[in-house]
Hints:
With about 170 residues, this protein is α+β, with helices and mostly antiparallel strands. The protein contains five helices and five strands, in the order ββαβββαααα.
Amino acid sequence: MRLTVNGRVHTLDSALPLSLLELLRDRLALTGTKFVCGRGECGACTVQLDGETVYSCLTLAEACDGATVLTVEGLASGGGEPSLSPIQRAFIAKDAAQCGFCTPGQLMAAHTLLARNPHPTDDEIRSGMSGNLCRCGTYPKILAAVRAVADGEFAGSAEAGSVNAA
Ligand code: FES
Ligand code: FES
């Protein structure tokens, strides 16, 4: 199977039945995407598949043949903080991560939301992020981070500037 991940094409043996999450973490060493519940309840494993957010723990890798995937590693345009996307910088500035385990999924959900709707209301942000749970309860700060990007506080490198915008 062929899969484009963060702009890079991979040709893989599809003999093993893997989830997309296992493929990303175990075959491609892209461990930014987290395994938490493994059953579609928490959103920690959220990635973009052809521009749509999916729970990669519930997505069969074989079904992704020919697809384009964006993971949290693809949000930044290079190394170091200056290369981070606006939503990544906003999460840092607004202190929106505590343990950080939910953060990659939260970032992918927020990135997709803002690509679709650059000026969401607070209710639209809450709705767009509702598939991603945070056991540390950082929801107000996550809302503040998404709100800040939507309000242009981190303007200068649009969300669309990452490897593979929605
Ligand atoms: S690990 Fe996939 S939804 Fe929780
Ligand atoms: S920051 Fe700990 S689960 Fe969200």
